[in-house]
Design brief:
The protein is of the alpha/beta class. Helices cover about 40% and strands about 10% of the residues. It comes from Vitis vinifera.
């Protein structure tokens, strides 16, 4: 019975299955032909007309899958902008302050102002609403700012704790605003109300006109020794992330192990970063910037580690990191943890350093007047440059009339800065990049 059942198969069914083989292969042949025609069809019409109104993905590098994704388009666009040296550079500044700093912020802004640049001011939430309003009105009252429209006051005030991640959050927000509202700047710099320039913007822009726009000035070193135990392993909480009133960070009882997917670096919180790098931190085509940002949310002194760790763990940027923060700072000795306030007695050392900026200064310290007079030539509102073409007779403000902002009048400050940058770009100095 079983044998008979197994032997009772139907030849007609076999025939009905195999009769589809020929049509199947025929349809496959047609499909492959259509795909090949689509892939290799010329991008322009035979009569030399316009390009087809849709994009065709190139498969010329079949071994590299990165060309299939939108992230590769972002990467290529950043590379193009990073190598663009066709015109004079433009800088983007973040100037930040807290309660009682609005006048100091305006003084620093006027000292570093240039029509080519972009400026964004952030007065944190600890300052009373009246002071933030006064700062906004001071900016609006300046005729040059109104005409050029390159100075902004952040409408949203954030709590900022220097040792916690709130400073990084505020910096990234400022960068995002600058990226959204301005397409024309090459480097991002962060200054505080206690910073002040030692060279004019003409000096700075003149020197950086001759530098590659792929260079990031960020003092950095690998975290070793006591810092691993006291900074990397503790878990801290920044109340500024959760509360509406500023208080110092506090430590939890838990500790964590060191990360294994990236190496930790530390350095100065004051940086001069390329547009392409900060775009990567905001729009990163991989998840590394966000992963590191989450790690530094509970890290002591995260402003001294976030950008440093990102840049030194990213192949595209690690060789662009120049380990200098472009500041003159006098540290306590030992252990070089707190900057000393600069005074007249530090003036000669500041000048000889060749740094374009210095910190920190007490409010209205007399040394600032000396810097204005002898280094910046600042008498009225702005440190004058070649863009100031008005009459200066009788103490009139030459910057009341604007000329060509792509012409720079360099002076002794440019010579000092040029000597310093040559030293920073030497092979001996660069041998310590991200090491």
């Amino acid at each position: 019975m079983i044998m008979r059942k197994n032997a009772n198969f139907h030849p007609g069914r076999v025939f009905s299955d195999t009769k589809w083989i020929l049509p199947f292969f025929a349809s496959m042949l047609v499909s492959v032909t259509l795909i090949l025609v689509t892939l290799f069809w010329p991008l322009s019409s035979p009569n030399g007309g316009d390009q087809l109104p849709f994009d065709i993905i190139s498969f010329s590098r079949s071994e590299d899958s990165s060309g299939y994704f939108v992230e590769s388009d972002i990467r290529r666009s950043l590379e193009v902008k990073g190598d663009s040296n066709m015109e004079a550079p433009r800088l983007a500044y973040l100037i930040s302050g807290t309660k009682g700093d609005s006048q100091r912020m305006m003084r620093t802004l006027q000292a570093v102002y240039h029509p080519r640049n972009q400026y964004i001011l952030h007065l944190d939430l600890e300052a009373p609403p009246r002071e933030r309003l006064d700062l906004t009105m001071s900016v609006k009252a300046e005729p040059t700012f109104r005409e050029v429209e390159n100075v902004r006051v952040m409408a949203q005030s954030n709590l900022v704790t220097y040792k916690g991640p709130t400073m990084i959050a505020c910096t990234l927000q400022a960068i995002a605003i600058l990226l959204k509202e301005s397409l024309e700047w090459d480097w991002f710099l962060n200054l505080s109300a206690s910073d002040y320039p030692l060279v004019t913007q003409d000096d700075l822009l003149h020197v950086f006109s001759n530098l590659s726009r792929t260079l990031n000035f960020i003092e950095h070193t690998k975290i070793t020794g006591w810092k691993l135990n006291q900074r990397a392993k503790p878990i801290v909480i920044d109340p500024g992330l959760h509360l509406s009133k500023k208080s110092d960070i506090f430590w939890t009882t838990q500790r964590r192990s060191l990360p294994t997917s990236f190496k930790l670096f530390t350095g100065s919180a004051w940086v001069m970063l390329t547009r392409s790098f900060v775009e990567y931190c905001i729009l990163g085509w991989d998840n590394l910037p966000r992963t590191i940002l989450m790690y530094y949310t509970n890290f002591i002194s995260s402003p001294e580690g976030y950008f440093h760790t990102v840049i030194c763990n990213t192949e595209e940027f690690r060789n662009t990191a120049i380990s200098h923060d472009l500041h003159y700072i006098a540290w306590d000795n030992p252990p070089k943890q707190h900057p000393l306030s600069l005074t007249i007695k530090d003036y000669d050392k500041m000048v000889k350093s060749g740094a374009p900026f210095a910190r920190k200064f007490a409010k209205d310290d007399p040394v600032l007047d000396k810097i204005d007079k002898e280094l910046l030539g600042r008498i009225n509102r702005f440190a004058p440059g070649a863009w100031c073409v008005g009459n200066s007779d009788g103490g009139a403000d030459p910057c009341s009339v604007r000329g060509n902002d792509s012409i720079f009048r360099s002076g002794p400050g440019a010579e000092r800065l040029q000597e310093q940058t040559q030293k920073l770009l030497s092979e001996e100095y660069q041998s310590n990049q991200c090491s």
